[in-house]
Amino acid sequence: MKIADILRPEVVITDMGAPTGEAAVAQLVSALARTRGVDAEVALKDIAARERTGSTLFPLGPYNVAMPHASTQACKQLVLAVGTSRQGISWGATGKKANLVFVLLAPPEAQALYLRALSRVSRLCQTPALLEDLVGADSSAAFVERLAAAEGRLGEIVTPAGMPTFCVLGAGHGGMAMAAHLAITGCKVNLFNRTEERIRPVQARGGIDITGEVEGFASLNRVTSDPAEALDNMDVLMMVVPATGHRGMAEIIAPHVKDGQILVLNPGRTGGALEVAQVLRDKNPAVRPYIAEAQTLLYASRVTNPGQVHIFKIKNSVPLAALPAYQTVDILPVIRKALPQFVPGDNVLKTSLDNIGAVFHPAITILNAGRIEDTHGDFEYYVEGVTPAVASVLEAIDRERVAVASALGIRANTAREWIYLAYDAAGKTLIDAMRANPGYRGIQAPGTIQHRYITEDVPASLVPLASIGEMLGVPTPTIRSMIHLASAMHGVDYWAEGRTVDRLGIKGMSVKDIRFLVVGAEPSSAAAAVPVAGSGPQER
User: Are 461 and 486 in contact (CB under 8 A)?
Assistant: First the structure.
C-alpha cells in the first residue's frame, strides 16, 4: 500500500483557518469522523496523550510540519487527514507555526504498518520542492495528486515483518472484501479465482477499490487463476466461496497445499471443515495443513462494480475453530495479527451449529419469492423482507437448530443473541434485534430466487441440521418444510445433494464419538475413524 491509497480529498483541508494546533487537529479528526467512521472523542484523547510525551512539530526548511498521531481504538484501519496553511497555525507552547498538519491514526493491531506510514510521511516531507507544492495546493484534489506523484518513486510500503501472508480463495462479495481489507492492513495478499474473467479488472489495476467501513485502494501482491502460483509461500489460505463450492475448491488446491499452511473456511456453514478435510485426505494424503472454519463471514459486503467492493459492516467478533479443536490455540494467534475480530470457537460442531445463515437466508428468500420475482429484488432484504410473520418462521427454525445442537451437547447461541454478539444490536424479539442492526440496512434482496441463499444454504446448512436431527431423534419440521419448498421451487432434490450425515462421515456415530472426532480424542468405535487432515501437532 501507499499513503496516497488511503488519503481522500474529503479529509484534506487546504488553507486552514484554525487559530491553534489543537483546533486544527480537532477539525481534521472531525473530517475523519464524518467520512471514515473514526470515534472523534477517543481519537482526540489518544492524540493528546501522545502529544504530552513530546512535540510532533518539526522544522523542515522554510516550513514547519506537524504530525500528531496515535495508535488508538478509535479507528478500524490506518487513516490520514491533512491540513495546509501558508500563514501557519500556532502550535502549542513552541511559539512556532505549522504549515502542514498530518493526522495519522491506526488501530493497535496495525502498529507496525502505522510506524512505517509515519516514516513514509516523514521521508516525503524531506523534499523542499514537494513541501512547497503541497502547501501551495489550491484544492484538496490537487494536494492528493501531488502527494501521489511524489510517492510513486518510493514504491509500496513493505509488509511489516512478522505479519502473516494471505491467499484469498474466491473473488465474490466476501472474497473481494477480505482481500482488500487484509491488504489495507498492510498484509501481503494473493487473490485466486477459478475463472479469469471475474478477476481481470483487479489484475488490470493491481488491486481493489474499497469503500464503507474500510476505505482506500488495496494493492494486491498477486491476482491469478493459477492455484500453484496463488498458494506459493502463503501462510494462511482464506477460502471464501459458497459452501457448495468447498469441495470443488478443495479439489483444485489439494495438490498445491503445503505442510503447516492454515486453511480457513469463511464460513464453514454446517460441516464444512469435516468435508474439506476428507477431500484433502483423499487427494493429497501426505500433506498436513491446519484446517479451520469460521462460524460466519466477517463482512456484510457487496461488489459494487468490477474491481470495487463496499463493506457495509465488519462484525465485532467471529468464532473460529480448528479441526481438531486443540489446534485452535496454534493457528488463531497467526490470524489475529491481521484480523483480531476472530475469537476462539469451542470446536467445529459449535461453529457449524451457530450457522445463522441457516436461519435467515433460505426462509427469507422462500417466503419473499413472489416479491423477489416481481421486483427483481428491489427491496431491503433484512429490513423490508422480514415482517412479523416471516420473523415467526425464522424463530421456529432457530428453535429447531438450537435443539439439534443441544442433542450434541452444544449450547448454540440463539439468532437474537448472535446479532448482539456480532453487531452490538439488541432487541426483545428477533425482529426487534434485526431492525436495530445498522449493518443490515441498505442490503438489497437477491434479484432472483436462483441464489446462493437457497442453492448454498439449503444443502449445506438446512440439510445437515435435518439429517443430524433425524439421526439423533430431534424433530425439525420447519427446517424440513423449507428444504421441500426449496426443492420444489428449483426442481432440485436438495436432500440428495446436501451434506447428510453420510456425506459428513458421521452416519451411525454416537454423540460421544462425534464429540471425540472434533476435539481430536481417540474414538471408541470404528465408525468414528474419519480421516482428518492436520490431525497431529504441526510445526510452523
Answer: no
The single residue listed with the C-alpha cell 504441526 is: 538
Residue 83 CA to residue 486 CA, distance in Å, equals 56
Identify the band that residue 286 occupies on the pLDDT scale cut at 50, 70 and 90: confident
Predicted confidence (pLDDT) at residue 34 exceeds the cutoff of 90: yes
Question: How does pLDDT run across 391-412, given as a tens digit for each residue?
Answer: 999 999 999 999 999 999 999 9
Show Cβ contacts of residue 333 under 8 Å, excluding neighbours closer than 6 positions. Answer: none
Task: Report d(CA 524, CA 507) in Å as an integer.
Answer: 15
Cα–Cα distance, 69 to 81 (Å, whole number): 10
For the CA atoms of 479, 481, 482, 485, the dihedral, rounded to the nearest 10 degrees, stands at 160
Roughly what angle, to the nearest 10 degrees, separates helices 40-51 and 21-36? 140
Residue 192 is predicted with a pLDDT of 98
> Cell numbers 470457537 label which residue?
345
pLDDT tens digits, one per residue of 419-477: 888 788 889 999 999 999 988 888 899 999 999 999 999 999 999 999 999 999 999 99
pLDDT confidence of residue 522:
54
Q: Name the DSSP class of 462.
A: I
Residues 6+ apart with CB under 8 A from 13: 27, 28, 31, 81, 82, 83, 84, 140
Give the angle subtended at the CA of 512 by the CAs of 509 and 516, to the nearest 5°. Answer: 95
CB 277 within 8 A of CB 534: yes
Cell 467492493, residue?
309
Residue entry with cell 498492510: 186
Neighbours of 83 (CB within 10 A): 26
159 pLDDT band, cuts 50/70/90, is low
Q: Which of the 8 DSSP states describes residue 444?
A: B
DSSP secondary structure string, 276-305?
A: HHHHHHHH-TT---EEEEESS-SEEEEEEE
Options 5, 39, 457, 513, the catalytic residue: 457
181 included as an active-site residue: no
Yes or no: say if 488 and 293 are a contact pair by the CB < 8 Å rule.
no
The whole-number pLDDT of residue 527 equals: 40
* 513 counts as catalytic: no
List beta partners, residue 81. 103
Name the region of 243 (left: φ>0; alpha: ψ -120 to 50; beta: rest). alpha
How far is it, in rounded angstroms, from Cα 385 to Cα 366? 11
Per-residue pLDDT at 54 exceeds 80: no
User: If we measure between CA atoms, which residue out of 165, 167, 148, 164 comes closest to residue 156?
Assistant: 148
Residue type, 532: V
Q: Which of 361, 374, 484, 490 is catalytic?
A: 361
CA-to-CA separations, 88 to 22, 95, 275, 428, in angstroms, rounded: 13, 11, 64, 54
